[in-house]
Design brief:
alpha/beta, Rossmann fold, 2 domains, six-stranded mixed beta sheet, 10 helices, globular
């Protein structure tokens, strides 16, 4: 692997420790660690990449995998990174192909013995190109229910990366949660045009506050900085931002990649095709996503209504709308 296409490279080797409480079959616990490569289009500090990175690091610490990774890999260099890791013997490659869907599938076709499981807006391909979506929209809907009852200006805002189906669905779910409890609320949406630019997300958030928003949904890192600066509340996505912004972020739509990773590892270890959609493992009813919130910030009746809806989602009796069109 050369340094021509990446900002930095770090390697995490399996420690050889016992697997512990992770839900794998006994045969997998006895198997040699699987060689897995992560190719991150943004720095691993970026929220989405950090979720994948932590799941992979945890699996390595448990002795399930050997993990190497590259971060900050540009779209133009991404296919080359995939090829190089495949040629180095990685059995499973985890990453994201949103800007390079066609090229990524071509690479997978050239390496049929390597499993590719990638964040994607497209479909699976062949026997070895699996996909997964970041479906923490259930938590976004529930956070929207809280925000809809908290807003005083009746204006909320969302700052997203770009209008791809994954991001659209998340922002639309937040808006739907707001509208479910406050039909008169106005929803502002801004896309910053990139997956990682905290200063740009902050500026977008400030502009929405100037336009009347008193609660922001931060699909991108940097949104909460604007909320903190202006003394309003914010909702986080993917990870728990509340410890970083204790007076600002009151709720987070969490997403956990480990169930998806576990399923992919199990398929590779069993010699099964990985050309399938792993998205469902990340749903709330499967334990792959959830909401975490600070109790007492939203009105008690709003929290009770949200918890009731959360229970219905987990029970499968309520489904949050999956709207992938660009928000209006």
């Amino acid at each position: 692997m050369t340094k021509q296409f990446l900002m930095s490279r770090r390697t995490v080797l399996a420690s050889g420790m016992a697997l512990g409480a992770t839900a794998f079959a006994p045969s997998l616990r006895a198997a040699a660690p699987l060689k897995v490569a992560g190719i991150h289009g943004s720095p691993v500090e970026n929220a989405w990449n950090s979720v994948l990175h932590k799941a992979l690091q945890d699996a390595a610490k448990e002795g399930v995998i050997e993990y190497v990774f590259s971060e900050g890999v540009s779209g133009t260099d991404y296919p080359r990174a995939m090829r190089e890791y495949a040629e180095q013997g990685a059995k499973l490659i985890i990453g994201e192909t949103f800007p390079v869907e066609k090229q990524a599938r071509e690479v997978a076709g050239d390496y049929p013995q390597t499993a590719f499981v990638m964040g994607s807006s497209g479909k699976q391909a062949g026997d070895n190109f699996g996909v997964f979506g970041t479906w923490n929209f259930d938590g976004a809907y529930l956070a929207g229910m809280l925000a809809g009852k908290m807003t005083k200006s009746n204006v909320v805002g969302s700052v997203g990366a770009m209008p791809i189906p994954e991001v659209n669905m998340l922002i639309n779910a937040f808006a739907a949660g707001v509208k479910a409890v406050n039909p008169n609320a106005k929803h502002l949406v801004t896309f910053i045009g990139t997956f990682f630019d905290p200063p740009k997300a902050r500026e977008a958030g400030l502009a929405q506050i100037d336009a009347g928003a008193d609660i922001l949904f931060g699909e991108r890192i940097g949104t909460a900085d604007a909320a903190k600066e202006r003394g309003i509340k914010s909702v986080g996505s993917l990870i728990d931002y509340t410890p970083r912004y204790p007076e600002t972020v009151f709720a987070n739509a969490l997403w956990n990649f480990r169930p998806i990773l576990n399923a992919a590892i199990a398929d590779v270890a069993a010699g099964k095709p990985t050309g399938r959609d792993y998205t469902a493992y990340g749903l709330m009813k499967e334990g792959g996503s959830d909401i975490v919130f600070v109790k007492g910030v939203a009105p008690a009746e709003a929290e009770a209504a949200m918890e009731a809806k959360r229970a219905a989602i987990k029970a499968g009796t309520f489904e949050v709308p999956r709207i992938m069109d660009e928000p209006k």
